[in-house]
Amino acid sequence: MDQAERGFSFQQSGPLDMRMDSTAGTTAADLVNNLSEPELRNLLRDGGEDRDPGKIARAIVRARPLATTVDLATAVCRATRPAHPGIKHPATRTFLALRRAVNREGEVLQQALAAVPKVLRTGGRLAVLTYHSAEDRVVKHWIRGHAEEEKREMGMAFGQPNPERWVKVLEEEVPSEEEIARNPRARSARLRGAERLPEGSK
């Protein structure tokens, strides 16, 4: 992901690609150059939780056509603030939102969770590592929804949970300060897990 030609990073100039599979699918350039301003605003708000998605979307539309990661980062900085060393880059959330949209990460996560009841055996453990608060909320709600003794609306939103409690919530893990110092990218990581209980457990 650090390779400039993959288009994931604003640290160096590269094509606006961001595809995990670089042989197929929509690129980030397709999105920033073709989506309407309202569509871009919604993408940035929902996918990256940008603080001012409307202003950034407007700046992107005005800067079209955008071809490189530097083009996009520059447009975001013009709409927000200049980038400064040691401070979170203002385009971080924008790049995150586009990467998630390009690779359909939210949809893939939902599909994976929906398959858990079919593949997780009694005593088996589910472990999900997320790097974004929106993804973490999905996982947290899914686990809690399936850990309730009765069907609840929250659980039903993520599939068809059993009417009986069938997973035990495991303690979540977050990176230590030492780990973050070694690997700054671990800062937002969160590991959640659950263990499947025997059928009929209360």
From TrEMBL:
Sequence ranges of Basic and acidic residues compositional bias: 192-202
Protein name: 16S rRNA methyltransferase
Cited Gene3D superfamilies: Putative methyltransferase TM0872, insert domain
InterPro entries referenced in this protein's UniProt entry, alphabetically: RsmH, SAM-dep_MeTrfase_MraW_recog, SAM-dependent_MTases_sf
Keywords: Methyltransferase, rRNA processing, S-adenosyl-L-methionine, Transferase
Domain of life per record: Bacteria
GO biological processes: rRNA base methylation
Organism lineage string: Bacteria, Pseudomonadati, Verrucomicrobiota, Verrucomicrobiia, Verrucomicrobiales
Family: Belongs to the methyltransferase superfamily. RsmH family.
Record carries keyword Transmembrane: no
GO molecular function, one term: rRNA (cytosine-N4-)-methyltransferase activity
Chain intervals for the UniProt region annotation (Disordered): 1-21, 177-202
